[in-house]
Amino acid sequence: MTIKWAVALTLGLATLLALVRLSLWHRRARKRGEASPVRLALLMLLQPVVSTLLYCALFPPMEGGGATDLRIATAGTSRLATTADGSPLILLPEASAMAGGEATPDLATAFRRHPGVRTITVLGDGLGQRDIDAAQQVAVRFDPPPLRPGILNLTPPPTVAAGGRFVVGGTLTRLSGATIELIDPAGRVTDSIAAERDGHFLLAGTARAAGAVSFTLRVRKDKRVIEQADVPVWVTDSAPPRLLILAGAPGPEVKYLRRWASDAGFDVTTQMSAGAGIALGDAPVALDAAGLRRFDVAIVDDRAWTGLRGPLIAAVRGGMGLVLRAGGAIDGPTRSQWQALGFGLTGPGGVAPLALPKASEEALARTRHGIGSDESPVDMALPEDLAPDVSRLGLTPGGGEAVPVLRDEGGATLGMWRAIGMGRVALFTGVDSYALTLTGRRDLYGDWWSALLTSVARPAPSSRMIPGVVWAGERMALCDIGDDGQVEHADGARTKLVPVAGCGAFWPAKAGWHSLRVKDGLRLFHVQPRDALPIMRAARDRQAMAMLSTATPDASAAAMTAGTPGSAWPFWLTWLATSALLWWLERFGIGRRKGGSSMSAET
Question: How far is it between the farthest Cα atoms of the chain?
Answer without folding.
Answer: 135
